[in-house]
Amino acid sequence: MLSTGTGTPSSPVTYERGRAVGFFTDTTLCIGCKACEVACKEWNQLPAELGTNGQTLPMSGMSYDNTVKLSGTTFRHVRFVEQFDLNDPDRVGGRWLMMSDVCKHCVQAGCLEVCPTGAITRTEFDTVYIQQDVCNGCRYCIAGCPFGVIEMNEKNVAGKCTFCYDRLEAGLTPACAQACPTASIQFGPIDQLQQHADQRLAQLQSMGRQQARLYGRDEAMLGGLNAFFLLEDSPTVYGLPEAPKLPSRNLAASGGLGLLAAVLAGVAGILAFRKRRMDPAAEANPDAT
Amino acid sequence: MPPDFNPNFQSPHWAWWIVLYFFVGGLTGGVYFAAAWLDLFGDEGDRPVVHLGHLLAFPMIIVSALFLIVDLGQPQRFLNMIFQSERLPLPILKPYSPMSLGSGILFIFGLVAFLSFVDALLHERFLHGIGNPLGKIASVIGAVGGLALAGYTGALLNATNEPVWSNSPWISALFLFSGISTGIALLLLVGRRVPRTTAEKLSEADTYLVILELITLVVFLFTLGTLAARFILGTPVAILFLVVIVVGLLALLLHWRPRLAGGAAMASTVASVLVLVGGFVLRWAVLAAPQGIGL
Question: How far is A154 from chain B (nearest CA, A)?
Answer without folding.
Answer: 10
